């Protein structure tokens, strides 16, 4: 199968597979016409289920057409059509088969022609690029060695004019981000807005992702697929030998993305924006927008918006927090103390006015403009340590935090080794007066339940009459209507609904007790209420299929607007956004910050226990305790042997596919959990040698979770379009043993898993189709979810080239 999702390259090749064999033809000619007609209908039904796979659909329709010809040419046909009720239905079905096959043939002819044209174009582009590389290899090597900056004009020209086209990921680390980059194709130039006060010398990739806003966090997955990674400040950084000035915020972020990053491997060394944002705005004012917040909606579009607005109005302390200027509390820097950066201004309250008129719920939800990403306020401690979740689950992200609520250590040491770094005293933001009491807690509960009820009523209002007339559905086997390229959401939700643990937590009776309304990174329970309402409706089985348009609008308003723009999107990206939002909503930890200063080696088991103890005081929710995989990355100096260990947690393990034809999941995971060499610009700053040294980095799984989710990275941006790796990836379904990927000193308790769900993708990202297969949480019977259609499957059997996200649970 090629990158376009087509198995063949011409109609001639396809037609050779569309005919019945001679033996099959003779067998059908000997059967009664009623039996042949029933077989025609079965093939017709199978063709409808194959929607998205145009070639398979066409193949089935052509075989159904041959059965129709067998019926019409039979000597029994004249008598059969007079004496049977099937005759009238036969003519209608046969005509439909012929019509649909004819339409598909026209579509496939166009696709095959485009495929040939595209292959020729790509071949020419590759040849031109090869010639260009061969002609400039010496010059390019020299530039790589000495040039680390790129101007905005150069970057945009590479994205728009290079053959093949390039993609870029920009990290905006300015203190004032009221004006921001806005490129109309966000998949080509993605911007991640980084809170200024998040960056210091203890920053690792794990802590960076942990403290990034939920609206930005999932975008980090684009690191490994972007051609250029660019760091941008206001004026452009000061460089020393092509590297940022030591002990600067730019250098701390640079090391977090390169040395202390075990999750997303970069294609090239990060570059720096020459002239910073000021030069970008001067050269591309059309690609710049003002991020100042808008005012609240004056007229809610429906009752759900009304109760959410009231919820935030009644509890403004949840989202509007102000702190004094930290600069007034910091001493003058000394020779040993690097100057402390100024604290960012307090983030203005977010307002949400929209001039978009309310829409009827039967229409596609209208999404208001996206909200600004501003510097998030510091997190708060709950009034008392909450009770941990009732089931033993693990967290998702390692949290060596840079936030100012950590206890002040008189002599803190640098994370992952390095010399001692003196720190000025920091204000403890965890002592904010807490106005919450028993009465306000009840009010919180009441309003969250009101959000839940309004979501339930909104979904009821848009249920189709055809669905109402079908009676009750099967609990846990309710379809989700496609509202226009929303199959990426439907397939993901169906797998999560069948995930053990989530279905028990996100219910009307339970979710309210898990929400931490003081969390600065979550939605204060709004997304949890909407998700719980949707989950309960699935498990109530009131209808055979529902239309989750209001949940999509709520998700867009609250978490990430671009995913509901009517285009097809990446299911894994949506899943990360959703799980992060649910996690932050229900994070009941006291958020006690800590720094990792582990050395690995013989004492790594003791260090892991220390990490987990501290980690769960910073991050503890039902989501990450259920899905969080703990991994460890050890860096070892090749000169002196000094080492450092960093622990990290993820709710989804994303792995590269090391082949374009076929491989196994075992190969993908062994490649992911392997050793890499840090050399050149990526050398490790060895704390013993006191200078950058060539080193090795080894990543391993330390503690697998109760539920393990593995994402196969099939999509990459190439020449302005998403290319898909259609390699057949084989995987275990009954006994998946994770011991080969565990650290040799990690505990190996219950290392065997079995598959319970999978997200499948057929076709290309922009023109494909997502479906899901899952084992019913209560009956263990396999089901196939194709938007609104849910059908049983006797056994789990899918094309290994379609598998995209695999869901495993511990045996």
From TrEMBL:
Keyword Transmembrane helix applies: no
Stretches the record annotates as Disordered: 328-443
Lineage of the organism: Eukaryota, Metazoa, Ecdysozoa, Nematoda, Chromadorea
Keywords: Hydrolase
Presence of keyword Transport: no
Composition bias, Basic and acidic residues: 420-431
Identification of the protein by name: ubiquitinyl hydrolase 1
PANTHER family documented for this protein: UBIQUITIN CARBOXYL-TERMINAL HYDROLASE, USP DOMAIN-CONTAINING PROTEIN
Gene Ontology MF, one: cysteine-type deubiquitinase activity
EC number(s) stated in the UniProt entry for this protein: 3.4.19.12
GO CC list: early endosome
Catalytic activity: Thiol-dependent hydrolysis of ester, thioester, amide, peptide and isopeptide bonds formed by the C-terminal Gly of ubiquitin (a 76-residue protein attached to proteins as an intracellular targeting signal)
Residue ranges, compositional bias (Pro residues): 336-347, 366-391
Positions of the USP domain: 478-811
InterPro entries on file: Papain-like_cys_pep_sf, Peptidase_C19_UCH, Rhodanese-like_dom_sf, Ub_carboxyl-term_hydrolase, USP, USP_CS
GO biological process: protein deubiquitination
Family the UniProt entry places it in: Belongs to the peptidase C19 family.
């Amino acid at each position: 199968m090629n990158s376009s999702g087509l198995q063949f390259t011409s109609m001639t090749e396809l037609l050779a597979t569309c005919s019945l064999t001679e033996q099959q033809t003779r067998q059908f000619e000997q059967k009664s016409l009623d039996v042949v007609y029933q077989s025609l209908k079965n093939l017709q039904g199978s063709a409808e289920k194959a929607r998205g796979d145009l070639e398979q659909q066409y193949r089935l329709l052509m075989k159904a057409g041959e059965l129709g010809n067998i019926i019409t040419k039979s000597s029994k046909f004249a008598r059969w059509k007079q004496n049977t009720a099937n005759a009238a239905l036969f003519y209608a079905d046969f005509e439909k088969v012929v019509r649909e096959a004819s339409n598909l043939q026209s579509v496939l002819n166009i696709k095959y022609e485009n495929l040939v044209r595209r292959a020729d174009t790509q071949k020419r582009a590759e040849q031109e690029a090869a010639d260009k590389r061969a002609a400039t290899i010496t010059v390019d090597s020299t530039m790589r060695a000495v040039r680390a900056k790129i101007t905005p004009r150069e970057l945009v020209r590479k994205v728009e004019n290079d053959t093949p086209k390039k993609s870029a990921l920009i990290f905006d680390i300015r203190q004032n981000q009221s004006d921001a980059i806005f490129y109309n194709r966000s998949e080509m130039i993605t911007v991640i807005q980084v809170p200024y006060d998040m960056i210091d010398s203890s920053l690792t990739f794990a802590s960076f992702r942990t403290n990034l806003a939920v609206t930005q966090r999932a975008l980090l997955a684009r690191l490994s697929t972007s051609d250029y990674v660019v760091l941008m400040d206001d004026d452009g950084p000061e460089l020393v030998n092509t590297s940022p000035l030591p002990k600067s915020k730019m250098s701390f972020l640079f090391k977090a993305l390169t040395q202390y990053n075990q999750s997303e491997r970069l294609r090239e060394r990060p570059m720096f924006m020459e002239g910073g944002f000021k030069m970008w705005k001067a050269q591309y004012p059309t690609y710049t927008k003002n991020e100042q917040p808008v005012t609240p909606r004056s007229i809610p579009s429906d009752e759900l918006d009304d109760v959410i607005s009231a919820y935030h109005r009644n509890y403004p302390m949840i989202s509007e927090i102000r702190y004094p200027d930290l600069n007034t509390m910091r001493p003058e820097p000394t020779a040993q103390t690097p100057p402390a950066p100024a604290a960012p201004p307090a983030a203005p309250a977010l307002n949400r006015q929209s001039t978009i008129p309310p829409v009827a719920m039967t229409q596609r939800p209208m999404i208001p403009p996206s909200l600004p990403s501003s510097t998030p306020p510091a997190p708060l401690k709950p009034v008392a340590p909450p009770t941990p979740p009732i089931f033993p689950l693990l967290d998702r992200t390692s949290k060596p935090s840079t936030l100012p609520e950590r206890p002040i250590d008189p002599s803190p040491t640098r994370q992952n080794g390095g010399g001692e770094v003196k720190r000025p005293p920091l204000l403890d933001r965890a002592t904010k007066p807490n106005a919450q009491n028993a009465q306000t807690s009840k009010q919180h509960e009441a309003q969250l339940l009101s959000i839940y009820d309004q979501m339930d009523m909104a979904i009821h209002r848009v249920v189709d009459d055809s669905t109402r007339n079908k009676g009750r559905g099967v609990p846990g086997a309710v379809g989700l209507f496609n509202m226009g390229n929303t199959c990426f959401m439907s397939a993901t939700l169906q797998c999560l609904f069948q995930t053990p643990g989530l279905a028990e937590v996100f219910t009307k009776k339970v979710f309210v007790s898990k929400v931490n309304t003081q969390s600065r990174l979550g939605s204060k329970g709004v997304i949890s209420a909407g998700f719980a309402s949707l989950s309960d409706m699935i498990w109530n089985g009131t209808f055979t299929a529902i239309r989750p348009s209001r949940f999509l609008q709520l998700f867009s308003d609250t978490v990430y607007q671009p995913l509901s723009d009517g285009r097809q999107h990446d299911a894994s990206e949506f899943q990360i956004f959703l799980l992060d939002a649910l996690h932050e909503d229900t994070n009941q930890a006291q958020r006690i910050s800590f720094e990792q200063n582990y050395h690995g080696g013989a004492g790594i088991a003791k260090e892991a226990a220390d990490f987990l103890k501290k980690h769960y005081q910073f991050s503890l929710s039902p989501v990450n305790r259920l899905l969080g995989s703990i991994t460890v990355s050890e860096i070892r100096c090749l000169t002196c042997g000094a080492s450092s260990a960093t622990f990290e947690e993820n709710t989804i393990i994303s792995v590269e596919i090391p082949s374009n034809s076929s491989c196994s999941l075992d190969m993908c995971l062994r490649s992911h959990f392997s050793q890499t060499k840090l050399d050149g610009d990526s050398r490790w700053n060895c704390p013993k040698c006191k200078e950058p040294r060539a080193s090795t980095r080894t990543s391993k799984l330390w503690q697998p979770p109760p539920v393990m989710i593995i994402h196969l990275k099939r999509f990459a941006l190439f020449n302005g379009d998403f290319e898909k790796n259609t390699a057949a990836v084989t995987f275990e379904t009954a006994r998946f043993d994770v011991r080969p990927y565990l650290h040799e000193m990690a505990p190996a308790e219950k290392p065997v898993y079995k598959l319970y769900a999978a997200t499948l993708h057929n076709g290309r990202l922009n023109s494909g189709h997502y479906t899901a297969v899952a084992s019913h949480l209560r009956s263990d019977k396999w089901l196939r979810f194709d938007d609104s259609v849910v059908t049983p499957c006797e056994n789990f059997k899918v094309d290994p080239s379609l598998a995209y996200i695999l869901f495993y649970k511990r045996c």
